[in-house]
Give the backbone structure.
Amino acid sequence: MGSEKTIHSDIEIALSAKMKPIQEIANSIGIQTDELDQYGKYKAKLSSNIMKRLEREKDGNLILVTSINPTKAGEGKSTVTVGLGDALQKLGHKTMIALREPSLGPVMGLKGGAAGGGFSQVLPMDEINLHFTGDIHAITTANNALAAFIDNHIHQGNALGIDPRRIVWKRALDMNDRALRNIVIGLGGPLNGIPREDGFDITVASEIMAVLCLADGLQDLKKRLSKMVIGYTYEHRPVTVADLGFEGALTLILKEAIKPNLVQTIAHTPALVHGGPFANIAHGCNSVAATKTALKLADYVVTEAGFGADLGAEKFLHIKARGAGISPKAVVIVATIRALKMHGGAAKEELNREDLSALSAGFENVKKHAETISAFGLPFIVALNRFADDSLLELELFGKLCLNAGISYALTEVWEKGGGGGIELAEGLLKLIENNDRCFEALYDLSESLEEKIVKVAKTVYGAGNVDFSPAARKQMKMFQEEGWGDLPVCMAKTQYSLSDDPAKVGRPTDFTISVRELKPKIGAGFIVALTGEIMTMPGLPKAPAALRMDVDSSENAIGLF
């Protein structure tokens, strides 16, 4: 940003960009013709055979992009991820970007689009934000097919003795729809099934999304699907998909969705956009398949994790990286002056005004996330994503605060300048990677108890003073241990807006307690979810949804996707 020129919207910039045929993008990174299943001119899926050919290739260098706790002012993490990839490509390095797929619910609700921004976008932006290659629709279908199989099993005699009151598998829809959070199904008499309470999750909160993103191939996908817990018997024993016998059918529905999607940036850097679990509910990372494929094809791979380092980076490292056997060589923490002022107490409507006091107070949020990444033993650099309203005094103060804290940073202007605005950041990262040959160090061992794991994350990553477990959570931890699930990592479900579980506590709160009210087993995904605060698995739409601005013009071009 920071330009006097006419500011165009993201969709206007995207539609004016000239894309190359996807085959040409594939050739530039070493993907062979028979390894590409094209979905039109500008997007394609990669064949499952590609990893067999590349399995002996050396992995490239993985760069993880995370951020401070997000605010309504916006941080531009995806924009920085794309701009950094373009910058590395511009410097002559063989580079790929690995991103999540946007969920249609937030796109229509709050975000309006999630494919980067300005001149640092992945294309075709409108298609990526809408139906893309149908992956999320396939996950929705698989999720709801399983729900239908469960209710049919009960209707047809319930041989497994499933307690209808203890079914934990919900239906799914990739849209924000609060009216579907709690429903009653099976009404209308004996022919319509057994009446019971049910509800919907947004598709990206479905365990099937997490399973697909963590699976290492089709057979691993099938194995993970079979382990998913759908409910409990009258004797309180868990019932899995394998007990029902439908893992094969679910795998069949997902056999194309597990293949990574190849697209390009405005600067024609190859990008794999695949999978999209929420980071405040699930683990918040793109698929293992996409990341591992990119590492075999490129010398540098730039990927992102959802929300701030307290959620996205922690889960990327403890769940995705540990499970997949990969490790970032360096980490980027994205911050903005605007967001830090909000963390320092400034109101959103006052962010255009210079406020050194709020900036100084809000900087504590950056410091905490820097400490977290350091605790994992990884080198990092802060990317200050510059906005037009940032004053010179604010930029100068940010630099002094970083210097005093011993934090390296780079000013980035990738929204306005694309890769050219990320050269300083790219060069700083290259130096970090050159001097680092370490892998990350996990903050807990898998052999530790679930309680110990949760407490370590809460205290080390969030800065909590204490963790309070409800009686129900303690009972569940005991039961999960008895079921043999105690050696799984934990996936904390927490608000993204605060280091605490209270979204109103911005900045760097201290002496707070994390309250764990419930645990949920996600055995197919391979983690235990710990629910804190009030986390919704089915969001609602705001009073004025982003969808109000969306339309199609006479040339069939999208309008309003930011």
User: Anything to note?
Assistant: The chain has three domains: 10-131+257-434, 135-244, 450-532.
